[in-house]
Specification:
The structure holds 2 protein chains of 2 kinds. By secondary structure, chain A is mainly alpha-helical. Chain A has helices at about 5-15, 20-35, 40-60, 65-105, 110-115, 120-155, 160-165, 165-170, 175-200, 205-234. Chain B has helices at about 1-15, 30-45, 65-75, 80-90, 100-105, 115-130, 140-145, 150-160, 175-185; strands at about 25, 50-55, 135, 160-165, 170-175. The chains are: A mainly alpha, B alpha/beta. The interface between A and B is medium-sized, with 19 and 24 residues.
Chain lengths: ~230, ~190
């Protein structure tokens, strides 16, 4: 068996540190702030998105409920849910992560952590990467499902029971996996960019809003480039 | 250059092994990189057994005071939570606060506290961690010794740790010939 390289060993140690209680606490807080606090917003946006897409499809392609919902499922699970979730997370959480890290740097808190023997990669970065990746995947799934519900309500009105029970005809495991995988990748990249912008900031208070703004702009750019690459590869 | 720095670090670490708890030592020069590297190396050998105290040492603004006080010892798994709670309450007794004041203080965020209170809490955190080695800035030590509110706290910390003062003139010389040579070179 080949020896483990120092970089890989350090990476393994960083993620193994997620089992430490204080690090798990940071991870749970990240999932709470990114995933749970944004849930209602994401569900409402998903519901509205489903309604909008179905109304557009009706305008363009006629009144077939089944065709509209089938197309909505393909669009939402394959493209819209991961992309919209990533954009929401970039706007809402990437800016928060970058400004928090930049503020910690400006106030000497990162140096204090290092002096106490607490690695920044283990305590600050890994739980944010994992927390936002999990949250992104879960939120994309909720957004997609609420979009389907919104589409079903708009196409069928109060008679949506039948459409909801027919959803399994449009949805298959591959679509769900694509949605979750894509959203996890976008969330991971967005938070990685945010962490980098926060840690790269100069240690001045005036750098905090700059780090936040850079995290949003570069995070969005990274997400769109990744989405384009995903589309081209498929 | 790198080899020379490593030699100095090894000499310093060897000297630290021979230091005695409760004593103060002066470190030759005030090389921030050497001290940072030595602290990092000590954390690899003995996690949580070294820290640095100076005017830039701070609490984490996104954690409540109680989380700040237990964080290093909790992270390094030096004690279980009930034991840490006991240590925190014992350390806070040195600040002579009422029970209500302690409860309010533990639940507050550092941003709501005065600068002096935050410095006191940095000392409380150090006492809760109880590291073997404390690298303390000479000006910081002078400030602490001039502040009557933290005298008892500081004495309790010094009793259980080895105090190392970079660039300071007070204190013992490090007990190692190689480091004493470094000191002569600096001089």
């Amino acid at each position: 068996m080949p020896p483990i390289q120092p970089f890989h060993r350090s990476l393994l140690r960083t993620f193994a540190d997620l089992w430490r209680a204080p690090v798990r606490r940071v991870l749970f807080k990240q999932v709470y702030f990114t995933g749970i606090e944004a849930l209602l917003l994401v569900v409402l946006i998903g519901f509205a998105l489903g309604g909008i897409v179905v109304s557009q499809l009706h305008d363009q392609y006629g009144q077939s409920r089944e065709a509209a919902l089938r197309l909505l499922a393909v669009l939402t699970f394959g493209e819209l849910a991961p992309l919209f979730t990533a954009l929401l997370l970039v706007a809402r959480s990437s800016s928060a992560v970058a400004s928090e890290l930049a503020a910690m740097k400006a106030h000497g808190e990162l140096d204090s952590l290092t002096a106490l023997g607490i690695p920044l990669s283990s305590y600050l970065i890994a739980p944010r990467l994992v927390g936002m990746t999990i949250s992104s995947a879960a939120l994309a799934l909720y957004l997609a499902l609420s979009a389907m519900l919104g589409g079903a309500v708009l196409s069928s009105g109060w008679d949506i029971g039948y459409q909801v029970f027919q959803l399994d005809r449009f949805l298959h495991p591959g679509m769900l996996l694509t949605c979750v995988g894509k959203a996890a990748l976008f969330g991971f990249v967005a938070v990685a960019v945010a962490c980098r912008m926060g840690l790269k900031a100069k240690p001045y208070v005036t750098e905090i809003p700059k780090a936040s703004s850079r995290a949003v702009m570069r995070g969005m750019l990274a997400v769109f480039i990744l989405d384009l690459a995903w589309s081209l590869l498929n | 250059m790198v080899a020379a720095q490593l030699d100095r670090q090894h000499a310093l670490l060897a000297a630290l092994d021979e230091c005695m708890i409760g004593q103060r030592y002066r470190l030759p020069g005030d090389d921030a990189d050497l001290i940072a590297d030595a602290i990092a190396a000590l954390h690899v050998q003995k996690p949580g057994q070294a820290t640095r105290l100076d005017f830039t040492t701070s609490l984490l603004s996104n954690l409540r005071v109680w989380e700040n006080l237990i964080l290093p010892a909790w992270y390094h798994r030096l004690a279980e939570l009930p034991e840490l709670e006991t240590r925190v309450l014992a350390a806070l007794q040195h600040l002579q606060l009422s029970e209500d004041a302690v409860r309010t203080l533990l639940d507050s965020l550092p941003a709501t506290l005065a600068v002096t209170r935050k410095q006191e809490l940095v000392l409380v955190r150090t006492l809760v961690l109880a590291p073997r080695y404390i690298f303390a800035d000479a000006d910081w030590c002078a400030w602490v010794e001039r502040s009557p509110s933290v005298t008892a706290l500081w004495q309790a910390i010094c009793e259980h740790s080895i105090l190392l003062m970079p660039g300071g003139e007070a204190g013992l010389a490090l007990p190692d010939a190689a480091v004493q040579d470094m000191e002569r070179e600096q001089g």
